[in-house]
Design goal:
alpha/beta, globular, single chain, Rossmann fold, Glutamine Phosphoribosylpyrophosphate, subunit 1, domain 1
């Protein structure tokens, strides 16, 4: 959600900034802008809409000559998405420009204070108070002015600052927002995401809350909240730049769907040794916990719904899954005997971070499952398991979700073994099944070549339903979300047993119902539900196991997945639904990688 980049070096800044902003498009945005130091002043170009519109305005402005600059993609929170509200924001006297990710919660109070001092505001944003306050705090020392400014802010922020009075330095600071520093040769950077920098450098420094960075051409200095210089470790990015490119695919989402066998292999293979699940460094006495609570938002929460059932079934420990956005306000009951599993692809999800902090304050042990190394959630947790899915660019998660589910299944088996709740024979059976997940993910892709034809048939539905039982229901939640978030079709997922408790009133002739039928012991129950909706005129698209011939006499159309142990089905069962959602969105002419109103990393409440 929003993206920022800063550059200081010897090259022209504007092309570097625009390239970086293009790499940050996946985060979701509705306006963009850049500011460059030129001839002792700050030149700013902003626009509503896409990066290409910004690039055209920069070209029309003569290219913005200068080797120091900052850029931003904005996802509107305060004020409509227009050019005036776009970042960077510039102080009244034109000396300072600021880009900002996050929410300044006390901006109204600060705005009124500054207006009373004669400051005029141009925008409706919370961000403009930062640059106007910075201007008032400046007395010749930019670092001290920024420190005084952020001491007045309440909320979350990653801030980049450009000053016409200090042309050989840019500053950055963060609190509860992602921000990294890139180390180059004669040039240095800051950005909200490594994807903006990886074509220029692979050496980065992760900033922590309350820190300030002074970035010059020849080096970077980091200070704590009191202004004391601190030493920060460098980190080397190891994934290839091609991972952040489309590589011939029309959309990042399709590329990432197709990458799932490789991503699952990267997540699983290093943790299976001689048929045993191994998590390096995880020394956890599972007997100390009498309850497991999984919390997350969006697709990560739906992965947690799968994890809840698998952990409870294998470990025989009470397990719940709860939305982080609700948990943080619910005054939850927990203590040191509660294991909290926090899930987030980015590791920066604001509501999930708040829930994590709430759980830790009550004594719970926090285990996180994240993809991004060094992210806020990873740092705040007692232990972290990385999914190692590689960069996920499309807003709608695919490989992020499936690797989360795979890690949860591995953890469930590991924990059940620690508790003595799984026989050696059953352990070996499940471990062998986990080892085959990447192979079965590829098979799930290969089995569904007809999905585009089905998308052409059903894309005109204005509203549809998913239904399933047990783990199939948990997977249907994610299937429904995938469809609605990229195709804009109203879609709801229901536990099939609840169909007759109200939902069936919405079934009418031609209504599409997607029925998940991969839970073999409940197959007959699902057939009954299919017959109920078909009797009322619904069309049924079933998802069933390969070799299940009975489904063809019940459903209008069928998507197949390779058969596996019931608790391992969810990883591959979602794949045909991802493909279906993608092709429906394609038929409807939607902007698949950048769906409206959505952002990749939700860093505001």
């Amino acid at each position: 959600m929003c993206g920022i980049i800063g550059y200081i070096g010897t090259a022209q800044a504007a092309p570097v900034l625009l390239e970086g902003l293009r790499k940050l498009e996946y985060r979701g945005y509705d306006s963009a802008g850049v500011a460059v130091l030129e001839g002792g002043g700050i030149d700013t170009v902003k626009t509503s809409g896409r990066i290409e519109a910004l690039a055209e305005k920069v070209r029309a402005a003569g290219g913005l000559s200068g080797s120091v600059g900052i850029g931003h993609t904005r996802w509107a929170t305060h004020g409509v998405p227009n050019e005036t509200n776009a970042h960077p924001h510039v102080s009244s006297d034109g000396r300072f420009a600021v880009v900002h990710n996050g929410i300044i919660e006390n901006y109204v109070e600060l705005r009124e204070e500054l207006i009373s001092q004669g400051v005029s505001f141009r925008s409706e944003t919370d961000t403009e108070v930062i640059v106007q306050l910075l201007d008032r705090c400046y007395d010749g020392d930019l670092k001290q002015a920024l420190m005084r400014t952020v001491s007045r802010l309440r909320g979350s922020y990653a801030i980049g600052v450009l000053s016409a009075s200090d042309p050989d330095v840019i500053y950055a600071s963060r609190s509860a927002m992602p921000l990294i520093l890139g180390i180059g040769a004669g040039e240095n950077f800051f950005a909200s995401d490594i994807t903006a920098l990886v074509s220029h450098t692979r050496n980065v420094i992760d900033m922590d809350d309350g820190e300030f960075a002074e970035i010059r051409r020849d080096g970077i200095s980091v200070f704590d909240h009191s202004g004391k210089l601190i030493r920060k470790p460098e980190r080397r990015i190891t994934w290839d730049i091609a991972a952040a490119e489309k590589n011939g695919y029309d959309h990042f989402m399709l590329k990432e769907i197709m990458e799932q066998p490789a991503a699952l292999k990267a997540s699983i293979e290093p943790r299976l040794r001689d048929g045993r699940v191994v998590f390096e460094g995880l020394e956890l006495d599972m007997s100390r916990f009498d309850r497991v609570l999984i919390t997350a938002c969006g697709s990560a929460y739906y992965a947690g719904c799968v994890g809840r059932t698998v952990i409870e079934r294998l470990c025989r420990v009470q397990t719940e899954a709860e939305l982080a956005s609700e948990l943080r306000y619910r005054d939850p009951v927990m203590d040191e005997r509660t294991l909290v599993i926090v899930i987030s692809q980015s590791g920066e999800t604001a509501d999930t971070i708040a829930a994590l902090k709430e759980c830790r304050s009550r004594g719970a042990f926090v285990l996180s499952i994240v993809n991004v190394v060094g992210s806020s959630i990873a740092k705040l947790s007692d232990f972290v398991i990385y999914t190692w899915a590689g960069p996920e660019i499309a807003v709608a998660t695919t490989k992020g979700y499936t690797t989360q589910v795979a890690v949860l299944e591995m953890f469930a088996l590991w924990a059940a073994d620690r508790l003595g709740r799984v026989s050696p024979e059953r352990y070996a059976e499940i471990a062998a099944g986990i080892a085959r997940i990447p192979e079965r993910a590829q098979r799930a892709l290969d089995l569904n070549a007809s999905v585009r034809r089905l998308a052409k048939r059903y894309h005109g539905n204005s509203s549809l339903f998913f239904m399933g039982r047990d783990l199939d229901y948990a997977v249907s939640l994610e299937g429904s979300l995938k469809l609605k978030e990229i195709s804009y079709i109203h879609s709801e997922a229901y536990a099939a047993g609840e169909l007759k408790h109200g939902t069936i009133a919405l079934i009418e002739p031609g209504r599409l119902v997607i029925a998940l039928c991969c839970c073999e012991r409940l197959f007959e129950k699902m057939v009954s539900n299919i017959q109920q909706v078909k009797a009322r005129g619904a069309k049924v698209l079933a998802v069933a196991c390969e070799g299940e011939r009975r489904i063809f006499s019940e459903a209008d159309d069928v998507l197949l997945v390779p058969r596996a142990d019931e608790i391992l089905m969810p990883v591959t069962e979602i794949i045909p639904m991802q493909l279906f959602a993608y092709h429906v969105a394609l038929e409807n002419g939607c902007d698949i990688d950048k769906p409206k109103n959505l952002a990749k990393s939700v860093t505001v409440e």
